[in-house]
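pipeline/complex-builder :: batch 7 item 3
reading input block
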Amino acid sequence: MQYITFDEKRPMDLVLLGRVAVDFNPVDYFHPLAECTTFKKYVGGSPANIAVGVSRHGLKAGFFARVSDDQFGDFVTDFFKKEGIDVTKIRRCEHGEKIGLTFTEILSPTESSILMYRNCIADLQLDPADIDEEYIKNTKAILISGTSLAASPSREAALKAVMLAKKNGTVIIFDIDYRPYNWVSEDEISIYYSLVAKESDIIMGSREEFNLTERLIEEGRSDEESAAAWHKEQAKIVIIKHGKEGSTAYTNDGNRYSIKPFPVTALKSFGGGDGYGSGFLYGLFEGWEMIDCLEFGSAEAAMMVASHSCSEDLPGPDEVHAFIKESKEKYGEMIARA
Amino acid sequence: MQYITFDEKRPMDLVLLGRVAVDFNPVDYFHPLAECTTFKKYVGGSPANIAVGVSRHGLKAGFFARVSDDQFGDFVTDFFKKEGIDVTKIRRCEHGEKIGLTFTEILSPTESSILMYRNCIADLQLDPADIDEEYIKNTKAILISGTSLAASPSREAALKAVMLAKKNGTVIIFDIDYRPYNWVSEDEISIYYSLVAKESDIIMGSREEFNLTERLIEEGRSDEESAAAWHKEQAKIVIIKHGKEGSTAYTNDGNRYSIKPFPVTALKSFGGGDGYGSGFLYGLFEGWEMIDCLEFGSAEAAMMVASHSCSEDLPGPDEVHAFIKESKEKYGEMIARA
Amino acid sequence: MQYITFDEKRPMDLVLLGRVAVDFNPVDYFHPLAECTTFKKYVGGSPANIAVGVSRHGLKAGFFARVSDDQFGDFVTDFFKKEGIDVTKIRRCEHGEKIGLTFTEILSPTESSILMYRNCIADLQLDPADIDEEYIKNTKAILISGTSLAASPSREAALKAVMLAKKNGTVIIFDIDYRPYNWVSEDEISIYYSLVAKESDIIMGSREEFNLTERLIEEGRSDEESAAAWHKEQAKIVIIKHGKEGSTAYTNDGNRYSIKPFPVTALKSFGGGDGYGSGFLYGLFEGWEMIDCLEFGSAEAAMMVASHSCSEDLPGPDEVHAFIKESKEKYGEMIARA
Amino acid sequence: MQYITFDEKRPMDLVLLGRVAVDFNPVDYFHPLAECTTFKKYVGGSPANIAVGVSRHGLKAGFFARVSDDQFGDFVTDFFKKEGIDVTKIRRCEHGEKIGLTFTEILSPTESSILMYRNCIADLQLDPADIDEEYIKNTKAILISGTSLAASPSREAALKAVMLAKKNGTVIIFDIDYRPYNWVSEDEISIYYSLVAKESDIIMGSREEFNLTERLIEEGRSDEESAAAWHKEQAKIVIIKHGKEGSTAYTNDGNRYSIKPFPVTALKSFGGGDGYGSGFLYGLFEGWEMIDCLEFGSAEAAMMVASHSCSEDLPGPDEVHAFIKESKEKYGEMIARA
């Protein structure tokens, strides 16, 4: 069943709004960050990774962002261009703000942490004036990354984008994508997450992220209660993730579809979510059944936790299909299906 | 007909959220401010004036605010206490922020301007942590002054209050109360005004203020279109003001009620709105017919533009009734009715 | 004896650098500020008062300052013009900064306090780029008010003015004028006060102000030790004040000259210092003996603590001479001489 | 001849004040930074490099600094400890400020540029309260890096250190070390550089750096005029550098000593200055003749421009002596002597 209808006449498939960053991942990993000596540089930032992911699957993506007016700004813009992402709405910062950096500490396949440079940062300079109504009118869907809500003026840029998407019938996807950095208080998180969630057609997040969102509305909801509450607003699909336990998509016809992770030898414990998002959204745009969208997302997630980067290693659809086929041959047809 | 039902079991009638300020009005008015030599000091700020107004009519009012930790903070708190307003939720600033000042320039009865001190100002320090759910649960209604939305953290405090009011069945009144100061852009104004307007039971503002609110949703609405749009959200009563042309309350049963100003010799062109608000809300709490609420508000507005202060000169109900009686005897029964 | 030689060819006598403010003094004084209802508005701020004072004595004064771009900016500029002060180097603020306000609380003739509005304030926006070398080259002396050192960019504007004064042989007068507001730490105070004191020809301050200045150099100096230390730098005259005990000018020839206050019925405990400064500097420019400069300053101080304002009531030289004559007839020739 | 006398009873040789940073140098250099994929991480920042350099020569060094409270703060502190540098006065930041990052772009041996992360940066949080008088009393010399003067509170920490060094007879070394980042205006640069230069026993900088320092005092000075002017203040040694043309030490007995660069195959065009500083100061502490100090500094500079890092590759004295010996054997005894 189709829960979301995209306006096929629109030239752009997905416009993302949020941070583009640069990741530095240690080459000599499985050591504390202080001891790592050599790093590989990659484009990073959750919505940036999803943009790359869906583009590699053939969708036409665009991006609302601010990046630094320096060599790293060049780097991410050039990379996006090379991937076929439309960069006409990516603007340079004017007051020396730098692009966010993420240094990853990979202690073991399951223990990771990140050291983020996010003070006076480029992505949070996204300005309401950067948000172009025509651009939103020409895209089938817009994805709001929750991190964009952490501070002004990016916060207002995101809220404006939501208002204009609603006005123009553009599908709104909210990827909660919580990062503790930049937020001032838990009240702020609940206020702004819930404001966007109320207007969204699709909401994606972990149980913890839904808890943060609902804190001022009703504490202690179960997944079913959360899904039901957001369905009463605008949501058609509510995806709640439980890490290694898998995730479930609750649809506004009362159905639920669950998926488990594919078995894989992980290198790092991050990057999976962006693979999941790319794969799931690709399936949705293709008009697949919900369970197939989820399976494709789960497979792409597994491929990404086994990779060194969160962007450069994103697969094309054939590779994901091949990975699924191979996994099923190895572990059985129902390997990821709950 | 009753458009709003108040929960009579709640001890507090109206909690206001927003700025408390100090007004300095020239004694030697009808001169440019630079030339005025002597000033009278009054409590001021639109929601503060309405709090005083409704208290003088016998309602039990409370206030969420931050005031300066100095003699002017003492002044406004003492004045509120004397008026019977609950000040337990009025907190002092902790980082030297000062209470807002308004120096009024009264060039003639129709030409006024104001010089505001609103940099690093106390009222905009209202913090989400100051917003107490129990307090909101115990009041029949909460009035949000739009000025509180102009900057963080007051902005989030107001949004939190709206969320908690909704959660607890407290009537939400939105007094748009636009002041250009402190706002960063027109986009911000439309974003935050419309967010609060969407959740409000009663919205009060001038045509210009509704235009600011609706700018990102739909430009160029007529009064009827504005009212209809907000009725589709939560609003039961939408009051749109046109200055000397009078104002109209649009109710969610499709009715409209219009009132004109009472004739009066004005001293200054401000202070009327707060009198209007106090009188109108008093009538509403009394359960009067809509047109009687409006007439009472209009009468109180007329009394205030003829007075030197916006707070100290606010009348009790007997005085307003007397003024209406006298005006009708002088000008006819229908003097203010459109 | 002449301790300071002024370059008589220069058209301007004294350029002051620092704050111009607006004072609001209660008309119904001898009550707590919170209870005062009516206020008189005056030009204020120590260097502004001295500028008015010396102008009324016939000196040609100029001013480096930033004032607000509003009616209060007009007020002070108009007042300065009327007094004959050159206002060509007084610029308006460009980012909404307001002119400082001082509300005075006069509890009794000896108990006063002030409530200052000094957040995001105009005078501290004075920019190094505002400091014009030609202007400094054309004035006999420049007076730096210590308050200008409290924050950037005014701090750097003052330091630049000192550097250019030194380069151009302009006499440097440092009026320490300590106000606790805006300073971040005692270390900062000592650092910047001592930097300017080292370059100054005349230093004026209370014992407490010298202690603040010398804190990082040597604590616990006596007046004689302070004077000797600054004489080893550039100072020719070091004036140290002890309130009601009187004050002493230490000159770099090893002499000292002491003066006591004139008896007077005080209205308020501030404003005296600016009268003292105006009178003393006038005598100095006239080439008087040191003790006569001090007597004239002390007399003018006495006249000012008996007045309601700190600016408008500043006397002309004839009035000061008359006051001295009258006091000596009443109390004896040596009334103020230690 | 000995131009500087160190107090041999003091346990610490050199305390440095300024930035500690982390350098990321591309492994795949000789490409634009945007295209470089792999980076080596090193301790960096000019005074940090000099601290490492002199420690490797056997001097006892300490450091006043603020570093980030994260894994990079651990990295630099651990590295310093391993090098024998006293880290008891290196404090962690308390408000999330991050350690400065320098990404180097090495296009060719002569074309380099840097991309710096210096917004809300750790080193500029050095606070006057961090500056411990006992520590300064126990060191023979203190080196102030000019970058520490770029913003408050580090600026005031540096000025306080200079005041306390002067009070306690500690030799003051000023390494101008100009970085455009963080400075607000050229006026500020001249004001603060000249304030520190006036109090310094040794001043080291390029011609351009002396021009920046002297801009508000006298423009267009020759090297001889600059040296003479600073000798009239406190300076005993003034070193003015002219890049590949070599550098000259002007001593306050009217002598001058010049040195040229050693021939070397450069890898990058930075890092030389810190080697020069380490080597020169080492010679000075050893009591060598001026020309020998310079030669040793020049040799160490040459070794550093041929190395990948600016810290890890710093040599010990034997290596520098060997380099000099080898160079002289190859190119002649006078190879670096002008």
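note: The domain at 12-336 of chain C is CATH 3.40.1190.20 (UDP-N-acetylmuramoyl-L-alanine:D-glutamate ligase).
queue -> next item
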